[in-house]
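Sat 14:20. Reprocessing the chain from the morning session after the first attempt stalled halfway. Input below, unchanged.
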Amino acid sequence: MNRVAIYHNPNCGTSGNPLAIIPNTGILPQVIEYLTNPPTFEQIQTIISGSNLNVREVFREKEAIYIQLNLHNSNLTDDQLLEAMLAHPILINRPFVIKELGVRLCRQSELVLDILPCPN
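Finished this time. Tokens:
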């Protein structure tokens, strides 16, 4: 299977770097602009679980809405945090790249190479 999906923000250079790498492996990725097409609750749970990160590790803590919603509160449950991400997708860190070999949060673009075949 040579399918790859990337949760991408076209206004983010960090998100664009892994997106530029993927076609070099001969794969055309499915690009999901998550700000306009956010994942479902189940999808974001699967993405986070597959990346071996926890919910707090995928937050964009520098977004103003993070502070406004008091999301740094350690008493909030994972489900509450996920609901906040889904209501405000800008809070989801990016880009997530998903392939059958795994899921990576590719803030460092070279991490995408962990789950892609060698370039052609």
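Residues 41-50 form the longest helix (10 residues).
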